[in-house]
Amino acid sequence: MTSTKPTGAQIRKDFIDFFVEQGHTIVPSASLVPGGDQTLLFTNAGMVQFKDVFLGTDKRPYKRATDSQKCMRVSGKHNDLDDVGRDSIHHTFFEMLGNWSFGDYYKKEAIAWAWQLLTDVWRLPKADLWTTIFRDDKGDIPQDDEAAENWRIQPGINPDHVLFFGRKDNFWEMAEIGPCGPCSEIHLDRGISYCDKQDIPGHVCQVNGDCQRFLELWNLVFIQYNRLSPTLLEPLPAKHVDTGMGFERIVSILQGVDSNYRTDLLWPLILTTQKLTGQTDEQREEHFTSYRVIADHARAAAFLIADGVVPGNQKRNYITRMIIRRAYRFGGKVGLHQPFLSHVSDVVISTYGDFYPELKRNRKSILISITREEEQFQRTLDRATSQLEYLLDEAIKSGLKLLSGANAADLYTTYGMPFEITRDIARERGLDVDKTGFDFSMDEHSLASGAGKAMGELGGEDVEIFRQIVEDLEHQGSLSTKGVEYDPYSRLEVSGKVLAIFSQGKPIQNATPGEEIEIILPETCFYIESGGQVSDTGWISSLDSTWEIEVHNMRKPAAGVIVHVCKVVKGHPSVGDEAIAKVDTQRRRDIMRNHTATHLLHAELRRVLGEHARQNGSLVAPDRLRFDFTHPEAVTPNQLIQIEAGVNQHILGDYQLKTTIKPLAQAIAEGAMALFGEKYTETVRTITIGGEQPFSYELCGGTHVGETGDIGIFLITSEGSVAAGIRRIEAVTGQKAYELIQNRFAKSSQAASLLGGTPETLPENITSLLAELNASQKQVSTLRQNLVSAEFKQKLGQVKLVNGISLLVAKLTDADAEALRQMADRFRQQYSSTGIAVLGSIKDGRPIVIAAITDDLVSYGVNAIDLVKFVAKPLGGAGGGKPTLAQAGGKDASMLDSALEDVEAWVKQQSHP
Ligand SMILES: [Zn+2]
Ligand SMILES: [Zn+2]
After folding, report:
1. Nearest ligand to the C-alpha atom of residue 191
2. Each residue's pLDDT tens digit, 871-893
3. From the CA of 189, which ligand is nearest?
4. Distance between CA 809 and CA 807 in Å, rounded?
5. Nearest Cα to 273, choosing from 349, 370, 340?
6. How far, in Å, is the centroid of ligand 1 from the Cα of 202?
7. Which of 289, 370, 624, 673 is 20 to 30 A (C-alpha) from 215?
8. pTM of the complete model
């Protein structure tokens, strides 16, 4: 690469700067973990974070946006993993550049700007560019003439390069119903020499001809319809633009290289790997697949862990585990047999860290997590591989083409060998693996199979009804244009007219006692569940108290629409009634204590355990708080004490909480803690605790106490594991903590008085009680031994001569294996030759048997192991030991007597050849 080529970072900046000049707002990339969307495993396209805007359930303060979005495609519909490593263009992680119009500019501007950026700014040869336009192959949807006309007028464009394609290539849909529209793609002709299908008969070398010659650079989507059914489209009132340009691809073109992996984004990772392997350039090219996989996976792992997705067993965490392990295995193919991937990921952090500062912030935990995961896999990889090789040999011998899913599942549960690696290895030997069978076998582990649809479900209910009513209310002036005013922070009580009542999703005028309804007021102070904090409950009543409603939940079905989910307790609430709404204050105070306490806990976890301990989900309820965080091992009792004490120190410090509203980008730059999987708006609320030197600074929309002293007291009630690498702490505060202390006090007083002391003397009293107990137990055991040996002495008198052999068969009361062994020894002391003893007992409901045979008989071929197995068989057990002394256990104690009775016959048979 010569120095005149623009760097990847410069190209990304060119794109964003260009659209900022056209009045676009820079929107930071959303997390790889989609906010508030459980149906999607990872953010897989630029539009994921704007989905709500297109669906009309959210509004943004800007109408034009530009961004570079982090994306992952490893499962579900968009699954590129199979191709990663095999070619030069597929990745698990990649960036998508985009510009967006939300009901603002449309085709004319979008097309002109795209042309301008590509040909003026980046100077791509106009003659090599082609565009595609929508023409319905089914003839139902109008052809996109508007786009075609706009393309044909671009300066220098060859009008013959404007082509029409059908639904598969040029019509975009979010889901089966919902927003959709035609799209227009821009392709670059790299010349006939790039065609990899010239030899294939019937290949037509053209745009969408599926060869390497024409590269799709950019897709401009024009959202202008709402699909109501498979055959019914209605025009949208507001039209949108959504564009996506694969970042790695444009960089490869502008840097003049024929592979994404040879751009300055990924090439340093390849070189770092080469340095580690010590291979020559020729060897590197020969093993380029391994280098590609390692570079791709090292990058994906760094970005995933930076977004809180640490390696683990479930869903997203499984993906991180799988790609690290897969990279490690490919490392083995180029001679790397020690953990190495963190060195490559470290280069990712330095390459991308300026644009994605989360990489730098989490550098330590990224590198540690990767190495730890490799070490764990290193321990089992060899055994897993040889087991797999064996299974593959067997399969090939039997002429199979498919390795069974159950085998693959075994390899994962026993050796932690991810399915994808099993498949890699099987394919190298010409076999495939039964994925359906694997999923079936892994069902209870509910692994990464449930990836879901690309855009998720649109929800069963009719958002339109709510939105229509709210729009009508806005027109009447009963509601502001922002919809229902929401302020759960400054008040716990509001009054206003009942604006709408819904029953089973339909608007009604009056409700009756006992009816479940949803109610809209012009404003509300009830908190709506988010950020782990549960919704408020409370009451709504008429001013004259003729009717009363209990609020048990809150929800927000569409932008600006907030409904109280309630049940009518008495009377007939009607639309238009003056009402007063009151939050359950007691409950809300408990919630606020717990919420502020989670912030204190978060800060203390990071102080005591380290910066890697980051929030991974929480629940803030009135009676408790639950906090999940990333940490590789159990928190020690000593650390727990430190954490709990630290939080209580902060409570005693009685710090005032500072709430500020500021732009998201500013808060992030200042180092405020943001949560993964949480969706943030442009301006965010931040909570700072700690006065002059704050120890806690978080983005948070929750409700909090005024001063930390209001929390009262904080007690940890449990600590445990949720998934690999994720721990959970549960705790109580305020009233619940007080109740817990009271309860413990009462119990300890009760225990103390049982021991005849006070709570202060409880430990000594218990210690001496235990000592007494111990002494008595020893005494009991001595007495029991004496009893057994007295019994045994008696039994020795029952020794019979059977074919010249001294045979003792005896059942002893309540003797354990050790006691039986001692007695067998005593038998052998007394009968040093031609003696056999079989001693049985029932201990804790289970039969045990010991057989002893003197050495001389053993040399004749009589064996205590055979004997004890013979006896154990009817007992449902098995045994083993030495030829002279063997032991067995069993399940069925009721068979012991008859089993012992049969011994004599066995001895007779053995001694009568
Ligand atoms: Zn071709
Ligand atoms: Zn919070």
Report:
1. 1
2. 999 988 888 889 999 999 888 88
3. 1
4. 6
5. 340
6. 10
7. 289
8. 0.61
